[in-house]
Write a structure and sequence with these properties.
One of its GO terms (biological process) is DNA integration. This is Integrase catalytic domain-containing protein. The chain is α/β, with parallel strands linked by helices. It contains 14 helices and nine strands. It is flat, with a radius of gyration of 37 Å.
């Protein structure tokens, strides 16, 4: 679709006033017309193509999507199959054994299993918090095939009630099968099939204690330290030197600018130079700055080869100038 729009724009001056044929896969224009409320780029594409009379191109899809024969061992012709991954949960017998032997579920499980009435509140007062929560949901609990389920309504899926002693085991198995997913994905997967009190809290604590997830997940990089102005106490204490370019060649052959700034007075000089080599930089720096304004106490540059050359270091040594440099690939270190 984008290729059609781009090439029609490129050759528009040839196409205006003429009848022409565009042979393309009809699925792409059809795809753009299926938007109910298109906006932005799709609207611009539709507006550009609305004057074109479109006809069905029936054999385009058939030719472009024609199946080829599998040649066996040929790696470029072999077909790769994508199979769904099934998450293994405990069997019904295993769930029934866990729930029936759990002390906090035993009373409720036995009454539901034998279709008895809900126990009175006097028997639940001294029970654990999960037992009291399930007692309050008595009308939504069912025992099917020996397994205790929670079902909010007839249109909702039933969810297996997990005892407190099995929460950690279930979370660990589900977390590993999901590829050490984060808290939100783990909670979403658990709520579709499982039920127990304080699910969100337990999942959050479990994810925080998972060391393998911390190694796999891309941690958010720490924020860089804020930039600060390099302080100078007197004129020419610190002079920043850098090169601007490559620029268009001038009549004298200059293609670069040697920029020199005093950090205290903010006075700057910009001298055009033809080359970037150390000899040109030193020959320009000495008469244009040092001879006019005096010898600076310190010169601050990046780690370019012209500033790190023996010639530039010897110039600083003869004039007793302290030479400092910025960190690698961090041009902000030489800013104001």
């Amino acid at each position: 679709m984008l290729a059609l729009v781009n090439f029609m724009r490129q050759f528009r001056h040839y196409l205006i006033g003429r009848k022409f044929l565009v042979r393309t896969d009809h699925k792409s224009p059809l795809w753009s017309q299926n938007f109910r409320d298109p906006d932005g780029q799709i609207v611009r594409w539709q507006e550009y193509l609305q004057d074109i009379e479109q006809k069905q191109h029936g054999n385009a899809d058939a030719l472009s999507r024609r199946l080829t024969r599998d040649h066996g061992d040929c790696p470029s012709c072999s077909v790769s199959y994508v199979l769904p991954m099934s998450l293994h949960a405990p069997e019904s017998e295993e769930w029934a054994a866990i729930q029936s032997s759990e002390p906090e579920l035993k009373l409720l499980y036995q009454r539901l299993f034998h279709n008895q009435h809900r126990p009175p509140s006097d028997e639940i007062v001294g029970s654990s918090y999960p037992t009291r929560c399930l007692w309050a949901l008595w009308s939504q609990l069912r025992v099917t095939d020996g397994v205790l389920y929670y079902q909010k309504g007839p249109t909702y899926l039933r969810r297996t009630v997990v005892p407190s002693s099995a929460v950690e085991t279930v979370l660990k198995r589900l977390h590993e099968e999901l590829g050490h997913a984060g808290q939100n994905k783990l909670e979403e997967s658990a709520r579709r099939r499982l039920c127990w009190p304080h699910m969100r809290r337990d999942i959050a604590l479990f994810c925080q204690s998972c060391t393998e997830r911390g190694q796999v997940k891309n941690r958010r990089p720490s924020a860089p330290a804020p930039l600060q102005t390099i302080k100078a106490g007197f004129p020419y204490e610190l002079v920043g030197v850098d090169i601007i370019g490559l620029l268009p060649r001038l009549d004298r052959g200059n293609m670069h600018i040697l920029a020199m700034v005093d950090h205290f007075t903010k006075w700057c000089e910009a001298i055009p130079i033809p080359k970037l080599d150390a000899w040109t930089v030193a020959k320009t720096l000495f008469p244009e700055w040092i001879a006019r304004w005096g010898v600076p106490y310190r010169i601050h540059t990046d780690q370019g080869s012209n500033f790190e050359s023996l010639l530039f270091k010897e110039l600083c040594h003869i004039l007793n100038i302290k030479k400092t440099r910025t960190t690698v690939y961090h041009l902000e270190g030489n800013g104001m």
